[in-house]
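Hi again,

Forgot to attach this to my earlier email, sorry! This is the prediction with zinc ion bound. I've pasted everything inline since the attachment limit keeps bouncing my files.
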Amino acid sequence: MLTNLYFSIKRRYAKTLSMHVVTKIATALLTLLIATTCLANSAQVAIIIDDIGYRKTDSDVLNLPGDITFAVLPHTPFGQTIANQAHLANKDVIIHMPMEASSGKALGPGGLTSSMDEGEVRHALLQAYQELPFAIGLNNHMGSKLTAQYSPMVWTMRFLKEKQLMFIDSVTTERSKARQLAERFDVPSLSRHLFLDNELSSEYIGQQFSLLIAQAKKNRRVVAIAHPHPETVKALLELIPLLKEHDIELVSVSDMLDAKKSASNLQQHAVE
Ligand SMILES: [Zn+2]
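Structure tokens for the complex follow:
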């Protein structure tokens, strides 16, 4: 966009303005272009806290610094209250939608299963959305069976597109079709790269966080998922400040998607 603007200004005003003024405008535009490119390409990390809602202490995650994204389980005792607080603090809230796992593990209330038809899937999604109407998107809780199935994911993406919601694939199976279908339905989407707290020791969480920093430096945009365990909150309170020291930006999922979009627009214009 800026490159186009630069050339159109040059074409339009080259005859009427002095070369000096045209050069000045061009330089200013180029500086702006470089700054925008750097911003769109700076290393970014999004941290999503999943599984919020069952324990009163889950609200401790609200003390984490910076743009954390909160993934809240619908129809849970504390989910709605914590989501409201997060929303009032201008944080991104997403629906942590229970989806059927291959293990057959209990889903919790309001989850999506493979025996549902489109009407039932839409109803369950709508019930969750009505409870968290300010949610900007959805990620899957479990779902190793359901995300690998075509029809339930098509129905989910259709719903998300209608409501202009984004999708984050928690990637609980390598066979997930969710992200691919999100792209087909033009639903903005991201995938989880790392889980930070599969083990609840400060050593393990610290190691995963180092991996997160290394991946962000290499791949620029990394999505991590953690959980509202007291051990995780304690560790993250100490670890999150390290991101700044490494020049990595902690962003909400919506900001990461915006940056991704600007970067691909710039790339497209560079090619043009
Ligand atoms: Zn979960």
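The pocket of zinc ion is lined by residues 50-51, 96, 141 (CB under 6 Å). The mean pLDDT is 90.

That should be everything now.

G.
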